[in-house]
Q: What sequence folds into this?
């Protein structure tokens, strides 16, 4: 008898634009990792590695380019990042710059934004989480994303940057619109709203940076103004672009870490009970959340010269989109990779990337999750999934997170 095997998944079937992938990505990723570990995706014009070691080799390889302008014009990566922006008008933030420009900007930014600046703000991070949880007191059910995980990092970064409290609502609105970035399927209305919000944010930060040049305060914008390395400083334009990047790169992702992490706990009551009983496990549990269900599903690089990845040859000029999502569940790296285990001894992950572009916000993201999740569990001892509401997944290719997570408090 002849059995026909289903074709390997490819193209949009490997992105959250596909509903089945958004809900159950690992069925497809496991198959690809086993049968075609450095998949050549002709539809999206990219190579798609899924093994932990190959993904790590890509993100740590400093000879690859992170600049989407170097990608073929018909590649999904370039279309997703540049959208309709003509290449000559595109102004990359550090995320999409190569050295020496990348090294220069990153060096200056990390003088102002680093582990020390995050440690200094920890008490305020706790206070912001507590205020949001206070507002939920007495509620029988709520959407954890809309009412806690989404506003929380926005308020924290706004305070860090030094956004005036009176501007917070406008600021939140502009920041929310950023969710449409990296969505190649956005409607013309969404594109217009996005461009408008991005411009307003840029103008806001330009004015703020100019104001801080005249009158320094104790905030991150002032620290960016003051940052200096061998006589070099950031221009006002570079500061405004960086502030916008901190919002885009930091808010959605931290929301997703909290949302995905709480979902994993509520789906694994034994692990939830363990964490409640042993709060010293929280830092390890957060690393396990990052391995098990990372907020950034993939990241792309462009080969400048031919290279071999696993057994596959990649020609110069081709895009490599490394699956951070697949890497965390590689059975060659982790035993029982699909088990969520807050006590796991080896939680190695690439959720924050690696190498030259390693996430600048990792200390802040970790602090936020380590503070917010235990506080939420403490406030709601009976927290559980709302059985009457479906879990909604985001449908944006680069991100892996929840649109809504309805919970019950008793
Ligand atoms: C759980 C939350 C977060 C995750 C999973 C995450 C993930 C990542 C990843 C994977 C990269 C590297 C991308 C690449 O190699 O192409 C990255 C870079 C970056 N992240 Fe995060 N991030 C998070 C939170 C934050 C926060 C809170 C901030 C700042 C407020 C931030 C700011 C940045 C910046 C500025 C870069 C660019 C670094 C560079 O290009 O040198 N991230 N992040």
A:
């Amino acid at each position: 008898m002849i059995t026909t095997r289903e074709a390997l998944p490819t193209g949009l079937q490997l992105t959250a634009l596909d509903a089945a992938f958004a809900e159950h990505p690992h069925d497809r990723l496991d198959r690809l990792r086993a049968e075609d570990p450095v998949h050549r995706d002709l539809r999206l014009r990219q190579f798609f590695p899924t093994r932990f070691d190959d993904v790590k080799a890509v993100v740590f390889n400093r000879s690859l380019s992170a600049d989407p302008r170097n990608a073929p014009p018909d590649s999904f990566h370039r279309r997703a990042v540049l959208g309709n922006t003509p290449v000559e008008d595109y102004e990359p933030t550090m995320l999409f710059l190569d050295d020496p420009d990348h090294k220069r900007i990153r060096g200056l930014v990390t003088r102002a934004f680093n582990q020390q600046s995050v440690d200094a703000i920890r008490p305020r991070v706790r206070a912001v989480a507590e205020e949001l949880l206070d507002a939920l007191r007495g509620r029988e059910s709520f959407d954890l994303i809309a009412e806690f995980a989404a506003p929380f990092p926005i308020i924290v970064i706004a305070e860090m940057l030094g956004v005036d409290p009176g501007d917070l609502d406008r600021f939140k609105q502009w920041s929310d619109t950023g969710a449409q970035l990296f969505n190649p399927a956005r409607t013309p209305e969404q594109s217009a709203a996005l461009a408008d919000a991005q411009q307003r944010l840029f103008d806001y930060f330009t004015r703020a940076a100019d104001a801080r040049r005249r009158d320094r305060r104790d905030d991150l914008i002032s620290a960016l103004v003051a940052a200096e390395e061998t006589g070099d400083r950031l221009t006002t334009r570079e500061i405004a672009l960086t502030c916008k990047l901190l919002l885009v790169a930091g808010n959605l992702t931290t929301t997703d870490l909290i949302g995905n992490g709480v979902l994993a706990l509520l789906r694994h009551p034994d692990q939830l009970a363990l964490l409640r009983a042993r709060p010293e496990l929280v830092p390890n549990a957060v690393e396990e959340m990052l391995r098990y269900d990372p907020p950034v599903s993939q990241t792309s690089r462009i080969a400048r010269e031919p290279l071999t990845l696993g057994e596959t040859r990649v020609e110069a000029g081709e895009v490599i989109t490394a699956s951070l999502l697949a890497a965390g569940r590689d059975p060659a790296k982790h035993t029982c990779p699909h088990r969520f285990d807050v006590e796991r001894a080896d939680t190695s992950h690439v959720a924050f990337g690696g190498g030259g572009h390693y996430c600048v916000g990792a200390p802040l993201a970790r602090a936020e999750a380590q503070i917010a999740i235990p506080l939420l569990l403490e406030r709601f001892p009976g927290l559980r999934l709302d059985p009457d509401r479906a879990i909604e997944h985001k449908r944006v290719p680069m991100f892996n997170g929840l649109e809504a997570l309805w919970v019950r408090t008793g």
About this structure: The mean pLDDT is 94.
